[in-house]
Amino acid sequence: MDLGLLLNGFVEILVPYNIMITFFGVLMGMLFGALPGINASMGVALLLPLTYGMTPIAGLTMLLGIYCGAIYGGSITAILINTPGTTAAACTTFDGHKLAQQGKAGKALGMATISSYIGGTFSVIVLIVLAPVLAKVALKFGPPEYFALAVFGLSIITSLAGDSFIKAIMSGVFGLMVATVGMDMMNGTPRYTFDQIALLDGFSFIPVLIGLFAVSQVLINVETSRSLSMKDTKIQGMLPSLSEMKSVGPTIARSSVIGTLVGILPGAGATIASFICYNEGKRWSKHPEEFGNGSLEGVAAPEAGNNAATGGAMVPLLSLGIPGSETTAILLGAFMIQGISPGPLLFRDNIHVAYGIFAGLLLANLAFLIIGLFGVKLFVKILQIPERLLMPLIVSMAFVGSFAVKNSLFNVGIMMAFGLIGYFMRKLKFPITPVVLALVLGPMAEASLRRALILSGGSWMIFVQRPITFVLLIITVISVMFPIIREKMTGKKANSI
Amino acid sequence: MFNKKRSFVLLLVIALMASLVVTGCGNTSGTTTVAEFKYPEKPVNLVVWGSPGGGSDIFGRTLGKASEGLLGKPIVVENKPGGGGATAMAYIAAEKADGYTTLAVTTNLVLTPLTKGTPNTFADFDPVIMVGKDATMTIANFAGEFQSLDDVIRIGKERTLKWGTFGIGTTDHVAAAILEKLTGITVDFVPFDGGGEAMAALLGGHIDLLNGNPSEVASQIEAEQLRGLGIYSEERLVKYNDVPTFKEFGYDIIVETWRGIVVPKGTPDDVKNKLYESFKAALDDPSMVKYYEDNDIVKEVMNGSDFSNFITEQNEFFKTILTDMGII
Question: How far apart are CA B109 and CA B84, in angstroms?
Answer without folding.
Answer: 9
